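Board notes, transcribed. Complex of a protein with 2-acetamido-2-deoxy-beta-D-glucopyranose.
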Amino acid sequence: MSFYSMISLLVFTILHINNAVSNAEESQTYIIHMDHSHKPTSFVTHEDWHRSTLTSLMSSSSLAEQENEMLLYSYNHVMHGFSARLTVSQLSKLEKSPAHVATYPESFGKLFTTHSSKFLGLRQNSGLLLASSSGQDVIIGIIDTGVWPESESFSDRGMSEVPKRWKGTCENGTDFSPSLCNNKLIGARSFSKGLKAAGIKISTKYDFDSPRDWFGHGSHTSSTAAGNHVPGASHFGYAKGTARGVAPRAHVAMYKVLWATDSEKSAASDVLAGMDQAISDGVDIMSLSLGFDFLPYFNDVIAIASLSAIEKGIVVVCAAGNDGAYNTTYNGAPWITTVGAGTLDRTFTATLTLDNGLTVEGTSYFPESVYITDAPLYYGKDNANKAICNIGALDHKEVKGKVVICENTTETDVEGQKEEVQRAGGYAGIFMTDLSFLDPEDFSIPAIIVPFAAGALIREYATQANATRVKTLSFVHTNLGTKPSPEVAYFSSRGPDPVTPGILKPDVLAPGVDVLAAYIPNRGFMEVHKYDLETDYALLSGTSMAAPHVAGVAALLKAVHREWSPAAIRSAIMTTAYSSDNSQTTIKDQWSGLPATPLDFGAGHINPNKAMNPGLIYDMDVQDYIEFLCGLGYNAKQMKAVIRRSQWYCSSKPAELNYPSFMAIFNRTDSPNAKNFSRVVTNVGDDTSTYQAYLEVPKGMRITVQPSTLVFTGKNQEQGFTLSVEVDSDAPNVIYGYLAWIDQYNHIVSSPVVAINY
Ligand SMILES: *[C@@H]1O[C@H](CO)[C@@H](O)[C@H](O)[C@H]1NC(C)=O
Ligand SMILES: *[C@@H]1O[C@H](CO)[C@@H](O)[C@H](O)[C@H]1NC(C)=O
Ligand SMILES: *[C@@H]1O[C@H](CO)[C@@H](O)[C@H](O)[C@H]1NC(C)=O
Ligand SMILES: *[C@@H]1O[C@H](CO)[C@@H](O)[C@H](O)[C@H]1NC(C)=O
Ligand SMILES: *[C@@H]1O[C@H](CO)[C@@H](O)[C@H](O)[C@H]1NC(C)=O
Ligand SMILES: *[C@@H]1O[C@H](CO)[C@@H](O)[C@H](O)[C@H]1NC(C)=O
């Protein structure tokens, strides 16, 4: 199975309690949310109270051991509560307690699974990297599959000391000891009680029962966010150069919650425990490249835990998901920074020269810098099945030792064609397609993917000449400056957000295609000629790879602006993002080649150096999120579950978030289709500045801003404005423009204004 399909298989099934057949006395894992104001003062800690609560549920003898087995985790930060093994009757008893807030049945989630820093414009001795001392003293917590501590990316060369406020530790376990941590990797813990309670074993064949990474994903994401400089890193020669994270002086703490057991599962109770620990340890930034099913926020443990983290000033960055379709963004709660994936301006190629002198360049990741010279070409021109390398069509006697042409490849069957060539004993393959998503690990035979246009020339030669030959086929070329780039990766999940369509998601785009970062050296990355090839650095793709880029940028911004809230940091990243590619046209969708929209790229692609000095920010605090939740019409119990308090205030004004993007959802049968937004911006730029509103408005849409001039006479001063948007009833389904506030110092504070006309 390819890495793409593995990480995009995001089927987060809730373990339904099958009431009809299950024995009432059978235990299940539940996450129980409690109201801590009900804790009797006689209990010193919450855990004591949780244990006693569980003991009280036991009908027979209250054996301490039994209660020990029931309790998995006590949570103190993400929420007050615990996870435990309970029978249905115990659960219903517990739910009658006045202290009970909510029950979440255990659920299971999956992963969304160096040049990139340069692509982001981050240069060592200038801009944001200089101003932030490369993220010095900032701590990034990564919730993932663990870490390979010996990787050069986690060397603490040049690192500052562990910050005094840090409370985390490195745990002991299978092939892992606290001595493996250093001033770079300052924390490493693992959480598997929930997984084990569900009867899933962590077998030594498939994983390490410790923070050590078996999968490779966590080493990759954490080194992307904050890996140290590693010269000469490459993926079998491709993308060779110095690998470094976005914030190379930031500290890393790994919370392993995802396990590469044979079913590759992660339990919500474990993810919550990891997030709870990260908050308690004192991380500044949290990055998650995983997600669970689309759920309302009061049932979404990641959303609940993230709001708790935000309340403590921790920036929470999450991958948007790999479903590639509209209405599929994960982790879209408005307090989370939700990241989609874009391509880099880099391609990996092979060069093919035929005997007639025709030279063609095509995509390849074949991991050997070998040359194929003077090899016979095979083209099954008289048999369509052979020409398109259908399964079982090729004859070993005909193709043995030859370079096989497979024509009319569609994106979905290159892999099938490659397998057919390999099965029949072909020496190498030429595949013709304009859309190819073969993963690096799929290049198990020498293969080149050529565009249709070039393919037609190859076919012409192969049809006309006899005794056709390949003069040379060479691999391991890395090309920079690819145009257009960035593009929205074909797999990147698109808005509107399935839970709250009125908030534009994803927020931003960051590099997520063929990202080079640390990998695990103990397990083969791919197989070539029946040999496992291993690598310290690998090219991986996914929104999983995009999120840690933004976590790194957030760390750099945090180092420069310690006082900024998570919303301010996100605002700075969003309002300075760009929506044009390096051909100076709108960023395109990799899938269709057509211009993408903010539903695909949010506010645009991140532009870190600009984010350092955004001019204005759209700030928000927890009260704003509470007002937003009030507006969703949640009942008291549901409110309590998300905001983890028993008292709150909802004003009567229409709930609207001070979000740095604008999203209106209209029904085209209504007339007029208009909406007013009110926003407040805070001056974080020069003391006195005057901003003018500039609007970019397409036909069929009208946008007005009142007032259209904002005058600031001091830093941190706030000014409000109203933006009105109106859309014609015959406008396209998705129509958008931009508002940009521009001052005399050329700060450009840009926001997409999107309307969906259903
Ligand atoms: C650390 O873990 C290993 C493997 O589980 C174990 O053999 C060893 O005794 C542990 N060491 C300490 C100090 O706990
Ligand atoms: C492949 O596509 C070309 C151009 O569309 C067409 O002429 C040719 O017949 C196709 N070949 C097969 C085997 O379907
Ligand atoms: C290839 O072409 C040469 C010269 O045109 C001819 O002599 C030979 O018979 C051809 N071979 C085949 C297999 O058609
Ligand atoms: C979006 O997805 C949600 C959840 O899957 C679904 O309930 C909703 O109907 C979808 N909306 C649209 C417009 O497809
Ligand atoms: C739009 O409004 C019409 C009339 O009120 C209604 O019948 C229709 O279902 C609405 N469409 C959507 C997509 O909500
Ligand atoms: C928006 O505000 C303007 C000016 O206050 C008002 O005239 C208009 O009715 C409002 N539109 C909506 C849709 O609320």
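The longest strand covers residues 469-480. The chain has 20 helices and 38 strands.
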